[in-house]
């Protein structure tokens, strides 16, 4: 089995980078695609044009829209939505789907071979944004529009989009580094989120069968 681990930044997969050659039963490559969905989608698309994989895993940190979730918690993302893609119509927002120009919700595609291994990782819905939310009023409106969304990232939906266009199974594993709130970097715990997300993926890779 050939697996590509994709991250926005090298920091987010530093622990994984140190153990890559330990997985003798599978071939694992690491790829840094950059921060933000535009750069990320371009880089990943280009990588997949000349390399083939059986599974893509997006590993990274994320903000939590729910304050009762402890920092460092790990989730797999089931559905990932682009809340900004569409048109304003005065007080209303028209999604790109309704405009007839494409899709705004993308999903994980879990291969049967790892479905059981993934069962222990809670699955949530996420939003992918160009601007990290940091304004209380805007966040309140976002939470009303997307009451089931738990995580916010800057690449997740773009990752699923590229994977589905290339017809490659794809999962997204994110560690909560911060709450989506008025910007306060002092409260973020990036090292904990990275450590837990990487531990989770290392455990997963150790148990994937070769095939
Ligand atoms: O310091 C800032 O205000 C700031 C603004 C944008 C991004 C960052 C990062 O360090 C994030 C890099 C990476 O992490 C993901 N991430 C983490 N928390 C969030 C969030 O609350 N909302 C959206 N994305 C988040 C994101 O996927 C980036 O790739 C710092």
Task: Using brief descriptors, characterize the structure shown.
Nucleoside_phosphorylase_sf; globular; 211 residues; glycosidase; alpha/beta; two-stranded antiparallel ribbon; Nucleoside_phosphorylase_d; binds ligand LNDFFVEH; single chain
Topology of helices and strands:
Elements: E1 2-7, H1 14-17, E2 27-32, H2 37-50, E3 55-64, E4 74-81, E5 86-89, E6 92-95, H3 96-99, E7 105-107, H4 112-118, E8 123-128, H5 136-145, E9 149-153, H6 156-165, E10 170-179, H7 190-207
Parallel strand pairs: 1-2, 1-3, 3-10, 4-8, 8-9
Antiparallel strand pairs: 3-9, 4-7, 4-10, 5-6
The structure holds the ligand O=C(O)c1cccc(C(=O)CC[C@H]2O[C@@H](n3cnc4c(=O)[nH]cnc43)[C@H](O)[C@@H]2O)c1.
Ligand LNDFFVEH is lined by residues 8, 35, 60-63, 129, 132, 152-155, 177-178, 180, 183, 185.
In terms of quaternary structure, the protein is single chain
Structural class: alpha/beta
CATH H-level name... which superfamily? Answer: Nucleoside phosphorylase domain
Which molecules are bound in this entry? ligand LNDFFVEH
How many distinct folded domains?
1
**Helix and strand succession?**
EHEHEEEEHEHEHEHEH
How widely separated are the two ends? 6 Å
**Proportion of residues in β-strands:** 25-35%
Arithmetic mean pLDDT: 97
GO molecular function, one term: adenosylhomocysteine nucleosidase activity
Keywords: Glycosidase, Hydrolase, Menaquinone biosynthesis
Catalytic activity: futalosine + H2O = dehypoxanthine futalosine + hypoxanthine
Family: Belongs to the PNP/UDP phosphorylase family. Futalosine hydrolase subfamily.
